[in-house]
Amino acid sequence: MRKKIIAGNWKMNLTFDEGQKLTSEIVNMYKDEQVSDVTVVLNPPFPHLFPVKKLIGDTAGIFVGAQNCSDKDSGAYTGETSASIIASFGAQYVIIGHSERREYFKEDNELLALKVKKALENGLTPIFCCGESLEIREAGTHESNVKFQLTDSLFSLSAEEIQKVVIAYEPIWAIGTGKTASADQAQEMHQALRRHLASKYGKEVAAEISILYGGSMKPDNAKELLSKEDVDGGLIGGASLKSRDFIDIVKSY
Ligand code: PEP
Q1: 76 C-alpha vs ligand 1 centroid, how far in Å?
Q2: Among 1, 27, 122, 173, fewest CB within 10 Å belongs to which?
Q3: What is the pLDDT of residues 115-124, one digit of tens each?
Q4: In angstroms, rounded to a whole number, what is the distance separating the alpha carbons of residues 68 and 95?
Q5: Which domain range does residue 24 map to?
């Protein structure tokens, strides 16, 4: 059975104290409000990883993840952080290929394939992001564009490896813009991606892979999006910075 996952992407936000406050609130609400079968992942900036992990403690169901990792193992790469360093601080997940990394840091499909490999080698679950720009959506080539991102970055993995990857479909035009894909648009893309995975790895393997939706998911639209058959959770930016909103999204399942 594939997992239901709600992951928060804090991006480059929150000081130490702010991160501690937000984490404590989320952990307390998660416990008090008995959110049981949804896996929650908090993805703060690197310096928060260890303190956030400590605050989560042994709370079952909440995990910590990074927002990026290096494609290299170790060495003279100033400013980079390897998957092994991330794992050694107790993180279990890592976001790879967020559209902001693709756009601002020119990360391409080939580099992202290497990062996914490094994450898996070090026992981290990659949350692999894909998604089309507005221009591509308007040209009507969004499905082939996003399938290509998967083929290029993930299809060299074995069937065993691909089942350890979480995919996040994030139309770029919906990220941080307040514009959300409709639940039907999300379902259409998630179903297309699952079919694409099935064409390479078979239906059974594809059925085990969680595909999250990301792009202005909020408490008021989460329920509808999460009700769709192939939408297995959400990757949340803005709303993950407010404990009440974030937990309300988690509870929308
Ligand atoms: C994101 O950064 O992955 C994201 C989906 O952001 P937002 O929820 O703010 O659109």
Answers
A1: 32
A2: 1
A3: 999 999 999 9
A4: 6
A5: 5-250
